[in-house]
Amino acid sequence: MKIGVFGGCFNPPHKSHKQIAELLMENGYVDEIIFVPTGDFYPKSNLASFEDRVNMLKLMVRDHDKMSVLEIGGTRDCEFTYQLMDKLRDKYSDVQLYFVCGTDNLRELNSWKRYEYILSNYNVLVARRNGDDVEEIVSSYSLYEGSITVANVEVGDLSSTKVRMALLNEEETVKEFLDESVYEYIDKNNLYRRMDDGI
C-alpha cells in the first residue's frame, strides 16, 4: 500500500488539488491520498481558520473513497512537515508514505525546517506545475535525488491565491475553480470577501 500525504494550507482547496490527487492515483503512483491542512500557527491575515479549511477539504473529497482528510496538522507537534511525516510513519507503519507536492513547493523545500531530514527519511512525490523545469529543480537536491520521484502528470497554473482574488473581486469564473460544495461553503460563511480576510 502506497499513501500520498498531500500537505498544504488549502486556502481554499480547489480543483487542481483534487486533480493532482486523482492523477497520482490513476497513474499508479499511490493507492490513496490523505490531505493534511496546516494549522493556524502562522501570522497570516489571509488564512481561513483551520476548521473552515478542514470543512472545505472534507466537502471536496466526500465522494472519493480513496481520498481522506486528516486533522493532525492542526496540532503543535505536527507544525512542521518532518514532524507530520514522523507521526504518520508511526500511525501507518505497514505502508509506504510519499509526501506530495508541486514543483513550486519543491523549489522552496530547502527553506523548510529540517529539509535534509525529510529527504533522507521519506519519499517525495512531485507533480509538475506551470511548465516548470522539474529536472533542474531536482538537480539542486543532487544528494537526495533517490528520494524524489517526479510523477508524469502535470496540472495548470491554478493557485489558491488566484482563487482568493477571484472571490474578492466577485468574478463569476471562480465557480469553475472550485467544487460546487466548496463554493457554497465559502459563500455561506462569507470567506475571502475582504482584503484583510482573503488576500
SSE order and pairing:
Elements: E1 2-8, H1 15-26, E2 32-37, H2 50-61, E3 67-69, H3 81-91, E4 96-102, H4 103-108, H5 115-121, E5 123-129, H6 134-139, E6 148-155, H7 160-168, H8 180-188, H9 195-198
Parallel strand pairs: 1-2, 1-4, 2-3, 4-5, 5-6
How does this model look, in words?
With about 200 residues, the chain is of the alpha/beta class. It has a single domain, classed as Rossmann fold (3-Layer(aba) Sandwich), CATH 3.40.50. The protein has nine helices and six strands, in the order βαβαβαβααβαβααα. Strands 3-2-1-4-5-6 form a six-stranded parallel sheet, with helices on both faces. β2, α2 and β3 form a beta-alpha-beta unit. The model has no long low-confidence stretch (mean pLDDT about 90).
Number of strands: 6
CATH H-level homologous superfamily name: HUPs
How widely separated are the two ends? 38 Å
CATH class: Alpha Beta
Order of helices and strands: EHEHEHEHHEHEHHH
* Mean pLDDT across residues: 91
Number of helices: 9
CATH topology value = Rossmann fold
Low-confidence stretches: none
